[in-house]
Specification:
It is built from nine helices and no strands. The longest helix is centred in the first third of the chain and has 24 residues.
Length: 214
């Protein structure tokens, strides 16, 4: 029995099927016919859920990223301290991609989903929500007097850029042994949280400035 004769299919089912097809063939080679076939429906019926292939692709990617975020958020809600949340955010986000083959494959096929240096990023609003998660954790850590006072917005964006770099190295560029790069990610987290100095620098009371920001 075709889906057109069943109860109305959910957009989640549509996007799950589309993600599978886009991951397998890439955006250019994937067709609406391929996605309709995956859903056991006609192409005409598929157009009731998407204006065109690009519309379906962007909505599919948005939902996939949001699922990624929600997976991390659920893990954060189980942690009691800002420190536990901080480490959980990064590690669970990477672990999720190990488990979700279609999103991992699509990231490799289309690096603009998660670009290191975006100029016109189509998913910027969603990625900003991830930065906001970091901001909330850092603000909580400062309130708990675990983290020192910092410019929360700037530090969150720096940390998110660092996290993106490792995601790109591990899953997009596919460069080298993933276990080695993941070990480097752990070292980066250790450096961020513990710092490089055995004790705080003695000269000056403010943050270290290496370049003139004027």
């Amino acid at each position: 029995m075709v889906l057109s004769m069943r109860k109305k299919i959910s957009t989640i089912d549509i996007h799950d099927a589309a993600l599978k097809v886009f991951a397998e063939f890439g955006y250019k080679k994937a067709t609406m016919e391929d996605i309709a076939k995956e859903l056991n429906m006609t192409k005409c019926n598929l157009y009731l859920y998407a204006a065109n292939k690009m519309d379906l692709y962007q909505n599919t990617v948005r939902e996939a990223i949001i699922k990624w975020q929600l997976h991390v958020l659920e893990a954060l809600l189980t942690k009691k301290t800002a420190v536990d949340q901080f480490f959980t955010l990064g590690t669970m986000a990477i672990r999720y991609l190990d488990e979700v083959h279609d999103l991992r494959t699509l990231l490799k096929r289309d690096p603009q989903i998660f670009p290191m240096f975006p100029t016109n990023e189509p998913y910027e609003t969603i990625h900003n929500d991830s930065v906001k998660m970091l901001q909330d954790i850092i603000e909580r850590g400062i309130a708990e007097k675990i983290f020192r006072p910092v410019n929360v917005e700037n530090i969150s964006r720096i940390l998110f850029s660092l996290y993106k770099m490792f995601i790109i190295r591990i899953y997009v560029q596919d460069s080298g042994d993933k276990s080695v790069i993941k070990a480097l990610f752990n070292e980066a987290l250790d450096l961020v949280t513990r710092g490089l100095f055995a004790s705080p620098p003695q000269e000056g009371n403010g943050p270290v400035k290496l370049i003139n920001t004027a």
